Amino acid sequence: MCSVKPDKIEILLLSAVRIQQGIPALHAYQLLQDKGACLAHFCDAVQALSRAGSIKSSDPENPIMAGLAPSKILELGLEPELDGAPRPAKGKEVRELQQGFKIFLDQPLGRGSFGIVYKGEQVRLKRPVAIKILRLASLPKDVPREWFLERFRREPMIIARINHPHIVQVIDCGEEKDELWYAMEYLPGGTLLERIRREGRLPAHEVRDLVRALSEALDAASREGILHRDVKPANVFMSGIKLADFGLAKMPPTRGEEGIPGATTPKAAIVGTPPYVAPERANFQSGDVRSDIYSLGATLYHAAAGRYLFDLDPGDRAAWYRHHLQKEPVSLADRVPDLPKDLVTIIHRCLKKDPKERFQSFESLLEKLKKAHGRRE
Questions:
Q1: What pLDDT does residue 81 have?
Q2: Helices 289-305 & 341-350 angle (0-180, nearest 10)
Q3: Which H or E element spans position 134?
Q4: Quick check: helix, strand or coil at residue 122?
Q5: Can you name the residues that pair with 243 across neighbouring β-strands?
Q6: How far is residue 151's CA from residue 328's CA, in Å, rounded to a whole number?
Q7: What SS3 state is found at 236?
Q8: In Å, what is the CA distance from 31 to each residue of 12, 251, 258, 283, 307?
Q9: Which of 7, 142, 178, 230 is catalytic?
Q10: Separation between Cα atoms, residue 296 and residue 196, nearest integer Å
Q11: What are phi and psi of 185, to 5 degrees?
Q12: Residue 17: its pLDDT value, please?
């Protein structure tokens, strides 16, 4: 007996697929079953969302077909389609920008906090690039237009200002007609999230590399007074380990403000992605550099364990915020017994509920990592 309305099942399923950027159908069904969904209505929701162009099978050779048996649906991986990425008309797949870039509109790479990312080419140098585009016509009607424009325009400026080898580099930016865009280096190989989905937990030496590279990147940002505010596996590219998407970043406080950068952000919204957001941000506080340290810890936990901090429905924001505030995650020492003790200690210190008990800076985190590595040698 199904106790959840079909339209509600579709909403919950789409939320789970989008937040996790992909999820096994069986796992999604188990999450929704706990909420009262039956298998028949779950499969109907999969079919409906597929027809609407909202989700697709992770395996192109096994698409979501009409009449597909429930047992076959449960064997699929589900991932989101790129909302707002219009399919180009035949013969219009390639578009040229005045600044000398080609955009391959039939090759979307993903979404950032603001805008869609396509594969492209810098014509003069004949090198591949990634181009992020914000179409003004696609902006939500309930959010002030200038708020989106200001954030999109400043994102490439933030990245260029930091200029760090473990942060995706910006090449150029501009505006044309009703669109804003910027070009950045193209990184093949996918994201940390895609790697975890494909292979599960990472080996210890790669986790250690992630700790070092991401801490160095975030340390460079914090020295410029910049908080990332959305550190998560989907924003980490594995090619050279590079941090991306500064669309939600916080710039330095204006002259005369005191304290750690970001401390005066208005308590208007919870900024960040629920599985990785710091407790103080989940409690409508703006946070500071130590909030990024918590998000890094949640990202590293996911990489080291191959699973989230908590076994929750990814679409249940309230549950995530409540757990970040009140619950302790299962120790990595229990979940991954062969993970070196120093990494367990570092990651769990990043995840302390009280910001005062975390590392107080990425510099201090890196110093701890260096000392631990010295002792191991």
A1: 75
A2: 140
A3: strand 127-135
A4: strand
A5: 167, 236
A6: 34
A7: strand
A8: 9, 38, 45, 25, 15
A9: 230
A10: 16
A11: -60, 145
A12: 81
Which element (helix H / strand E) includes 364? helix 362-376
Check: CB of residue 239 under 8 Å from CB of residue 189: yes
Start-to-end CA span in the chain (Å) = 60
User: How many angstroms separate the Cα of 123 from the Cα of each of 92, 110, 170, 171?
Assistant: 17, 22, 16, 13
Do residues 226 and 261 make contact, with C-beta atoms less than 8 angstroms apart?
A: yes
Tokens linked to 160 = 């260029």
- φ, ψ of residue 13 to 5 degrees: the values are -65, -45
- The pTM for the full model equals 0.75
Contact 94, 105 (CB under 8 A): yes
List, for residues 175-204, the tens digit of each pLDDT value. Answer: 887 888 999 999 988 899 989 988 999 999
Who's near 71: CB < 8 A, 6+ residues apart? none
Comparing CA positions, the residue from 243, 251, 216, 207 lying closest to residue 363 is: 216
DSSP state of 169: P
pLDDT class of 294 with cuts at 50, 70, 90: very high
Among candidate residues 244, 227, 248, the one with its CA nearest the CA of residue 154? 248
| SS3 track for 77-112 | EEEECCCCCCCCCCCCCEEEECCCEEEEEEEEEEEC
Element (H, E) at 211: helix 204-223
Cα-trace Rg, the chain: 21
Gap between the Cα atoms of 306 and 313, Å rounded: 16
d(CA 149, CA 213): 30
Q: Please give the sequence-ordered ranges of beta strands (E in DSSP) within 226-358, or none if there are none.
A: 236-237, 242-243
User: Residue 372 is encoded by which pair of tokens?
Assistant: 């631990």
Find residue 235's DSSP bridge partners. none
The whole-angstrom separation of Cα 38 and Cα 24 is 17
Clarify whether 178 is annotated catalytic. Answer: no
Three-state DSSP class for residue 278: coil
What count of other Cβ atoms lies within 10 Å of the Cβ of residue 113?
17
How many alpha carbons lie under 13 Å from residue 162 in its C-beta half-sphere? 32
From CA 98, how far away is CA 146, in angstroms rounded? 24
- Region of residue 103 (phi > 0: left; psi between -120 and 50: alpha; otherwise: beta): beta
